[in-house]
Design brief:
This protein is 38% helix and 19% strand. With 186 residues, the protein is an alpha/beta fold. A 4-stranded mixed β-sheet has the order 3-4-5-6. A two-stranded antiparallel sheet has the order 1-2. The radius of gyration is 19 Å and the shape is globular. The two termini are 35 Å apart. The relative contact order is 0.11. Pfam families: GTP_EFTU.
């Protein structure tokens, strides 16, 4: 039933339009762990639901359509994950469409996926830089006695990119056909 049954989209209108309109959750048991999945709408007019879902979560799988690429909502989801100090994992979905619809060569598909990962890294880098500038401003203000400097956190991240397939922190999937992979080279 992959691609046909939309288990988390339980409203009739969601099934008919094949879009998520209301957040829903499910609990899965895996060995000794409970995993709670929260499916929230991905469009801008549902930012409050995404915000609430991130506050209830320990991590975030951020689905990115490999054909359509990054939309403004992905920026909002990554920012919310950054604010809530979650560890997001980009999940590039619908890889099959790169071949079946766009008829990309292997190298073209690779380049497109690499560009998407690079764009996600650019977004996260911007948040790190924004935090760094905020901390510098706070530190400079404290030199003039305006605010205290106890609790300042400088982001000292010398890693090249946050997300790299070779780190195993990016997943590639085709939910319709039920397959996925990630690099295990670490």
């Amino acid at each position: 039933m992959a691609g046909k049954l939309r288990f988390m989209d339980f409203l009739d209108e969601e099934q008919r339009r094949t879009i998520t309109m209301k957040s829903s959750s499910i609990a899965l048991k895996f060995r000794y762990c409970s995993i709670y999945l929260i499916d929230s709408p991905g469009r801008m007019d549902f930012c409050n639901e995404v915000s609430t879902a991130t506050r209830l979560s320990d991590g975030a799988l951020v689905l990115v359509d490999a054909v359509e690429g990054l939309h403004i909502q992905i920026h909002a989801v990554l920012r919310q994950a950054w604010i809530e100090k979650l560890t997001p994992c980009p999940v590039l979905n619908k890889l099959d469409r790169l071949i079946s619809e766009l008829e990309l060569t292997r190298m073209e598909a690779y380049t497109r996926l690499l560009r998407i990962v690079h764009e996600v890294n650019g977004i996260m880098s911007g948040y790190k830089y924004e935090k760094y500038l905020s901390d510098v401003d706070s530190r400079l203000a404290s030199q003039f006695g305006e605010v205290g400097d106890e609790n300042l956190e400088f982001v000292e991240d010398d890693e090249e990119d946050t997300f790299q397939p070779q780190k195993g922190n990016v997943a590639f999937v085709c939910a319709l056909d039920g397959w996925r992979f990630r690099s295990l080279c670490t």
